[in-house]
Amino acid sequence: MQVNGGTELVGIIGYPIHYTLSPLMHNAAFRALGMNWIYLPLRVPPGEVASALGGLRSLGFRGANVTIPHKVEVVGFLDDLKGDADLLGAVNTVVKEEERLMGYNTDVAGFIAFLHETQIEVEGASALIFGAGGAARAVVLALLREGASRIYIMNRTASRARELKTALKRATSHSDISERAFDYEGSRVLNQCGLVVNCTPLAVDDKNELPLEYGDFTGGQWAVDLNYAGRGTAFLKEASSRGANTANGEGMLLHQAAASFRLWTGENPPEEEMRQALKEVIYGKGQAG
Ligand code: NAP
Q: What whole-number distance in Å separates Cα of residue 180 and Cα of residue 57?
C-alpha cells in the first residue's frame, strides 16, 4: 500500500481503540481491489466527538466507523440519519455525501447476514438477549425483522432495557418483547428459547459473570456471543458443553464492515480477503482456514 497525495481516508473513532480489528479488514479489502484508500484507527476520548467530526470534515475523510462509546452521542452532531440509524438512534458508520455527514447503522444488516450465513432459523423462535446497549439494539431489530416471535431482554440497568423495548416496539407489531431481571431467576426462560445472544462484554475470559443457569440449556439451541476470542469465550464454552450450537461475533463484524465498505466506496467488498485477514488475527496465521 503506497500512501500518497491521492490516498482517500477513512477510519474508526472510538475509545479505547487499540483492540479494533477493522483496519485489518478494510486495508486488506483496499489492497485486494488495488484501491488507493487507507483506513486508520482514530482514538477519540469521551466528550471529543464533535471536534472529531469537524476534523473528519476538514481533513477530507470519506467517512468513518463509530464504536464504543460514541455510537449514540455522535447522532447529535451529524447532518442526517439514514434507515436503521434513525430507528435505533445509534450510528456505526458515517459517510460524507457531498459536504454532509450522514449517519448509517450497518450492525443490523451485519447480524442478519451472519444469521443467514450460519443458517440460524429465527422465524417463530424465542430469543434471550443479554445487554441493551448499541449492539443489543441492532441485534433485537435484526431478530424482529427475521420474524422472532418473542424476545426476552436481560440488562444490568433495567431502565435501558425498557428504553430498548419502547424504541423497538415501533419496528414491528407481531413480536413480543419483554424484560427479565438481570439475575439467575430472570434467565429461567432459557429453556423456551432457540437462541441466546450475549451483547455484553461479560463472560469473555475464563469467568462466567453472566447470570445464566447453563444447566437450563436443552441442547440444540444456538448460543451466539458478539465477542470473539481465538480460544472461545467462557459463555460459548459453557453453552457448548451443554449441547448448544455456538458462534462468535466475527460473522457480524465481517458483514457490518462489508456493508460500510460498500457505502463509502460504492464497490462490492472482497469479503473472502476481509474474512481471511480477520481469521488470521483471531486464530493466528496457519490456523485461519
Ligand atoms: P454498549 O453500548 O456500551 O453496551 C454495553 C452493554 O453491556 C450494556 O447493556 C451494559 O449494561 C452491559 N455491560 C457492560 N459492562 C457490564 C457489567 N460489568 N455487568 C453487566 N452488564 C454490563 O456496547 P455495545 O456496542 O452494545 O457492545 C457490547 C459488546 O458487543 C461489546 O463486547 C462489543 O465488543 C461487542 N460488539 C461486537 C460487534 C461485532 O460486530 N461482533 C459489534 C458491536 C459490539 P448497562 O446498560 O447496565 O451498562
A: 43
- Which of 17, 88, 117, 156 is the best mutation target for the ligand 1 pocket, counting ligand atoms within 8 Å of the beta carbon and taking the most? 156
Determine whether 4 is exposed, middle or buried from the number of CB atoms within 10 Å of its CB (0-12, 13-18, 19+).
exposed
Q: Give yes or no: 71 in active site.
A: yes
Residue type, 82: K
State the closest ligand 1 atom to the C-alpha of 248, by its place in the atom list counted from 1.
Answer: 41
**Which residue in 284, 272, 274 sits closest to 253, CA to CA?**
274
Could you identify the atom of ligand 1 that is nearest to the CA of residue 252? 40
Closest CA to 263 of 101, 33, 57: 101
Max CA pair span of the chain: 59
| 243 and 282 together in one domain | no
Residues 169 and 179 sit within 8 Å (Cβ to Cβ): no
pLDDT digits (tens, 9 = 90+) for 12-70: 999 999 999 999 999 999 999 999 999 999 999 999 999 999 999 999 999 999 998 99
Q: Give the burial string for 207-222 (b: 16+ CB within 10 Å, else e).
A: eeebbbebebbeeebb
Residue 1 within any structural domain of the chain: no
Reported as type and span, the H/E element at residue 106 is none
Q: Which residue has the cell 434471550?
A: 128
- Give the sign of the dihedral formed by CA 33, CA 37, CA 40, CA 42: negative
Q: Quick one: cell of 159?
A: 431502565
| CATH of residue 163 | 3.40.50.720
pLDDT tens profile 144-174: 999 999 999 999 999 999 999 988 877 666 6
